[in-house]
């Protein structure tokens, strides 16, 4: 494998471990779909989102196409139509079913897709079982398997954000999982009781503690190292590791909270063009935006938001999520004006440099998928240093998603994984409450367009010194 | 009840009969949904169509709102949210869930909706059972019940045309009910086998007989009577019966067939502006239309179409369906050019006058929903007179859907049923293979915009003498 | 000439008279463009409108193409590109420059177009001069000449409505011709003085008289004659004359006024769906319509409107104009509700029958183009019978623009003049303050889609008896 | 003035020199509009472009608003409406006339705008004449004057690219200035002779020399200085100068030519997704792009393009222009595939570092506006080193237009000049054949979205070493 290929960084002794991890990751995906009905799994709420059923099938298609089709002796497809139906965007593999119509495919149904998963799982297990460490393909199989697992973890997060968006379109506001707090019913947008849901439980998230005050952590100018280092897995877009000059800067110790955003809204943040980029202000006006995604006024001056546990009153101490880049940038400018400082979003290099400089691991104690909260949580104590760098909310940066210097996409179809999206998007760092903990790295590059709101995306402030 | 109200034309002795008919119509609706999975019932394939689940709930909402809420002692709604979720367009009743988002309501689920239907059915039965013939409300209850049943029959047809459209968006082309003929697989649009469908059955519709030749039935000038007469049910838009002068004209003895449409396509019908209205040609160009809805080329010069029994080769002898008004008008003009005659669509008055002039009832032997064909069928024999006036295909007329002279909408919310749609639509007559036989009348006025293609809509030719 | 051809109804002795009329009509068109600068003549303010320059060239193209090209010996085009640039929609003649881009053709410039007009005028005059009454083509030449003049008169009206729309897009609200009244400056929409316009003149239209009260003129049921009769010119769409049964009805004696519309607006007419057709309410909501075209609030509770004489305060006694069919229909329903009567728009047959029944000619004393008012005027006195049937405002009918029974388009390219627009439009009758008096007939059929507002279109009420 | 304000870098002795430069720049703008008719100056061909008349007025508005209004004693506006009509996007100054409707303002006319320019010029001259070197405002006046002149130079280029786009929409393809070569008439898109243009002149640009071969100039890794240095004028977006680490790279010695682009088109460049970014391929498909802007096939396998001298055959040796970022990126990838090298666009830091490293000034001998060519020209001789860095074509970089580290917008309304556009655009460097020579710097940052094609934008290749 040359440097243009995917890294063959799994040693042959990893075969049993890979088989084990495969089972775990695959089971995790099914567990995330378990609370949903077949109808929930079927529907696509907008072109950017995909049905749960499609996620379940597509990640399986990935293993079928890139592992079984290439390495299984006597390969035959589970169903010939699936090659088209569940191909996301790999032109090299062939045609794709149009993305906005994924929700129209009612057949195969969920039983078919569960059978598809089971069969592919069994065949992958058999393939790994019969693979000899001395087989010349073993390194490549392991390498592609690793990519498939990382890919499936990405879709675990998307499954949650997509189903959240779908449920939010329903005026009875169903829960993905119950854990609700009492709700102030807004006068103009009645919250109906769920159809079959007799009781409500007190929320575990009610926050009584004061928020951790905003503080600053300074960094000197440096020729920082950016990008992936070491032998573990990384996507091609994290490579190559390279030097990048960083001017002196300072980072906020924590994420911006819902309470700070309430103040932005209350001060007319969505009505004054001076806080916004020109394109951001156009977005506000064209979409008549008056508040963040999922917020609704209660009618008595308060606000509720929608979570995977249903509609809840806003807790001012939780980190802000579901804001797009335009909103993140505008609120940073407004907060800077409040404090008389030129506040802004951090650059990717600044963020990554800061994460790498931390004494304790930046992602330790992070609120990731495994916490089960499925929502950001308030800072539990007066944290030291940079808190919340990992988990809770993806952090928008001021950096465009562009190739690292010397970047080369992987060879073959998997080369379409990242490289062809490197324009007109912004980089996000650190993972969220819906990201598997094992999936994240300091060099990890998430990316979305500047108007995307349905991910768990938030804001950490920065400033040039 | 004044003439502005719905007709109270049901006698008190009709109470048991109404209870019986109610059960029959309601059961028929559920039977139509029976072949579908919960996922099939959930999805909305375009803004004009509705999910099966929504149809099942909305027709129930109609009885709950217009019968139970008004006449049931101690009425309480099944669920408060349903008033909004399943209101189609009755502004008088209150807010409506946005039509294009009907498919996003995954909860209530199908089990909830079945429970909703069962409870409303039981309560309606109880209401009718306890209603005394001498009760001053009985006539009105029966009148609204009748309207509810007619309404539900309309949705039975829409349920079929909407699910057909949904299934047609799936490249594996599932069947609503099996009854397939062998298919010529098109090279560029592969037809995959259904996911779990081992065998194919020979089609019952293969036509070996010659088509009945086109012939003409003449009518003299007359002051015709148009609109509903008699004591049976009719919608407000069929009233009042009124005189209308009709110039001498002639009507084709049968519907235009798929074979005639194949000739239109083969002659470049979709590429020459001279056959089209200006707005029709704009529709062709803007949508790059090259063939009727559901047609696909086989790759060897043939065509297939999509039916509720799956994709099948085109049978030239079956009446043409799924053409919009622009296409119907253009093909009539093209056929006129072929024959050297100024052919056109009939007017509503011509059609209704002709139907009323028939010796045997115009709808006798018609291919309606009850035949189970769910598709037009070839004329079985050399029929005499006007054939296929009832069933097979709704017949586009050259008449706009406007109020009859002296029209007054019903009083109250049901006055929104028809009147507010009387602009920018064209009238269709006669019912289709998806229309319940008991639902149709000569005065019945169906209506759709000139670009609607997903109904079972076809063409009968006419000419001025 | 058969009945399918244009009528050859001009006698050979008409040659000098035709030459004279040609000069008059052509000069009238230039006179209408005279107050405009070259830049005014260049710009297209919306796809439905055309630049003045295009109007001037297109009507000339009509004579060049349909008269000179067919009948002039040794014909050569003025410029080969004009065949495409100034063809409106005649597919038979060849390609057309895209309608929405007519305003982008800065060259040829106005001097070129004036030269084009002068040359064509001279060649047409020469052709007519050398045409012998015994020439077998003379009748056809005269027939096409007549069509060309009628066509040019239609564009005279469009020139005025199109330039009015263009000027209305300019926040300094220039005048086409001065005749302004003092204006209440609205606080939020400042009216700036024209760039070079030192003085304002008192308006000649200030109305002090009371409005003529609304009264009704009754008509009995009749088999009315509809369509063109006699030997004068008529468009193909007015033919053939045919019987049409009309039920008893009554017509309002005058047009609806600005004052009545002010009451509709004040009563929330644009905020209550119950007055509107479903499609009309969608139009209101989608376009956030709160008032008629050209109206602006003054800030102190009053309203101004835009006229060809600039922005003026609303005179409640002038007939209402610039309302589309949706608005006309809704206001009629609202006025009916106010009066407890089912008021509606008249049908075309009712209107035409009523016009033909009048003792004095219905169009006598009408406020047509020749009055120079270029705006509707209040009824001068307590008029008897049906007033304002001709001129002031085109009257929306409740009839769709469909072919008369037995309609056949003219043969050849001129057959594209009317027939291909006979769908999805409504008929208007009677002419407006921008229509040449000689252009109008009782059988004349103007037509526009239900959302068109920029013509001088108004409302006369009707009711079934 | 603090660092947040515009630089007051003009010394007081510059007053007479500023008055002189003001006259020169203002006269240059009028000279560019001189070949155009009033109608040419009036029309807006697309929302991104502006009418010439608007450019002439807006740059004058800039001096009136930012110089006269602030510093002229007894200031009164030329016309109160101009504050709105000719404000481009300065929210701080007040409302703006909607950009897509700039072409609808036919009044004020060109005579008014010429009078506006003359009056403002006279008042500015008077202000400068009476300004004493010791006046405390002098430095600021000079600073804003300088900004106004730089601003007007930017609009000189836009005036040319906008008028080129307008003329290209006219199927008779008028010339801005004559200098035409004979044209192969394409069969399907006839080129008509200009309306009044008897003769054609031989082109001065016919190229017989071979193209300069592509060669590479290498650069070592460095901590480069990026951004503006020195005391001359620079926009705020060029500041502050800052270090940026650059990895080893190599730059092509010249721009990509029309000939190389012909090979890309011939090889199916616009039909294969593998060369394109995902968003680029969507752009190709959505717009059915098959060739660069302004190209038309001749019908015999050749191509023509549209220039300010009219439609001409493509000269393969001239640098390519009018490609957007998607096209530039795709063609670079395709050329890399042809040569077996990972070719790409240079980053902004690479380009600027390379320009600063040149022994002779990078912009010397550049084909700028002053050459009068108004089109790129072939490399005259076998140039040494990096040729064509200045002029001919703006060079797309692989860098997003983001703030330099430590960037602060100027204080006040002029702070809206650049900063609020720093998202979703890409940086271009070096100037074009329509850029005034004196306007350009190595640190100059031009920026456009990735789909913009109507500027003189081209490609220089780069590669990581």
Task: Give short descriptive properties of this protein.
homotetramer, alpha+beta, Four Helix Bundle (Hemerythrin (Met), subunit A), paralog of FGE (formylglycine-generating enzyme), 2 domains, 12 strands, disordered N terminus
Structure description:
Four copies of one chain form a homotetramer. The first copy, chain A, is of the alpha+beta class. The first copy, chain A, folds into two domains: 3-168, dinb family like domain (Four Helix Bundle (Hemerythrin (Met), subunit A)), CATH 1.20.120.450; 209-464, paralog of FGE (formylglycine-generating enzyme), CATH 3.90.1580. Helix content of chain A is 31%, strand content 10%. The first copy, chain A, has ten helices and twelve strands. Chain A has helices at residues 15-33, 38-42, 52-71, 82-85, 110-130, 138-168, 258-266, 278-287, 325-339, 348-357; strands spanning 216-219, 222-226, 242-246, 249-252, 296-297, 303-307, 310-313, 394-400, 426-429, 446-448, 457-458, 462-464. In chain A, the strands form four sheets. Chain A has a four-stranded mixed beta sheet with strand order 10-9-8-11. In chain A, strands 1-4-12 form a three-stranded antiparallel beta sheet, with helices on one face. Chains in contact: A-B, A-D, B-C, C-D. At the A-B interface, helix 2 of A face helix 2 of B.
């Amino acid at each position: 494998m040359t440097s243009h290929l995917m890294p063959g960084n799994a040693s042959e002794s990893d075969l049993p471990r890979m088989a084990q991890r495969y089972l775990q990751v695959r089971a995790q995906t099914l567990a995330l779909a378990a609370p949903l009905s077949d109808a929930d799994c079927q529907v696509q709420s907008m072109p950017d989102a995909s049905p749960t059923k499609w996620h379940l099938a597509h990640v399986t298609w990935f293993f079928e196409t890139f592992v079984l089709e290439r390495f299984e002796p006597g390969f035959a497809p589970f169903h010939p139509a699936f090659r088209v139906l569940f191909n996301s965007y790999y032109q090299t593999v062939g045609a794709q079913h149009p993305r906005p119509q994924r929700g129209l495919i009612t057949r195969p149904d969920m039983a078919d897709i569960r059978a598809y998963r089971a069969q592919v799982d069994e065949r992958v297990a058999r393939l790994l079982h019969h693979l000899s460490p001395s087989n010349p393909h073993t390194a490549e199989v392991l390498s592609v398997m690793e990519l498939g697992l990382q890919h499936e973890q990405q879709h675990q997060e998307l499954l949650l954000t997509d189903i959240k968006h779908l449920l939010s379109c329903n005026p009875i506001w169903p829960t993905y999982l119950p854990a609700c707090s009492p709700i102030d019913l807004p006068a103009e947008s009645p919250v109906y009781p769920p159809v079959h849901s007799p009781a409500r439980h007190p929320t575990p998230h009610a926050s009584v503690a004061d928020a951790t005050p905003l503080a600053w952590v300074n960094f000197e100018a440096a020729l920082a190292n950016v990008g992936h280092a070491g032998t573990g897995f990384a996507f091609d877009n994290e490579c190559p590791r390279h030097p990048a000059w960083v001017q002196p800067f300072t980072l906020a110790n924590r994420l911006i909270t819902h309470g700070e955003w309430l103040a932005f809204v209350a001060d007319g943040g969505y009505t004054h063009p001076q806080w916004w980029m020109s394109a951001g202000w156009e977005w506000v006006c064209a979409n008549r935006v008056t508040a963040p995604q999922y917020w609704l006024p209660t009618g008595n001056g308060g606000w509720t938001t929608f979570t995977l546990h249903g509609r809840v009153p806003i807790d001012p101490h939780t980190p802000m999520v579901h804001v797009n880049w335009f909103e993140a940038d505008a609120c940073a400018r407004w907060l800077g004006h409040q404090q008389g400082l030129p506040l802004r979003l951090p650059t990717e290099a600044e963020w990554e440099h800061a994460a790498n400089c931390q004494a304790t691991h930046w992602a330790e104690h992070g609120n990731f998928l495994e916490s089960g909260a499925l929502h950001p949580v308030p800072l539990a104590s007066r944290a030291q240093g940079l808190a919340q760098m990992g988990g809770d909310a993806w952090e928008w940066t001021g950096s465009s998603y562009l190739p690292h210097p010397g970047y080369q996409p992987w060879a073959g179809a998997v080369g379409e994984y990242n490289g062809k999206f490197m324009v007109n998007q912004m980089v996000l760092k650190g993972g969220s409450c819906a990201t598997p903990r094992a999936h994240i790295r300091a060099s990890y590059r998430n990316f979305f367009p500047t108007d995307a709101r349905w991910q768990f995306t938030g804001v950490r402030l920065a400033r040039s010194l």
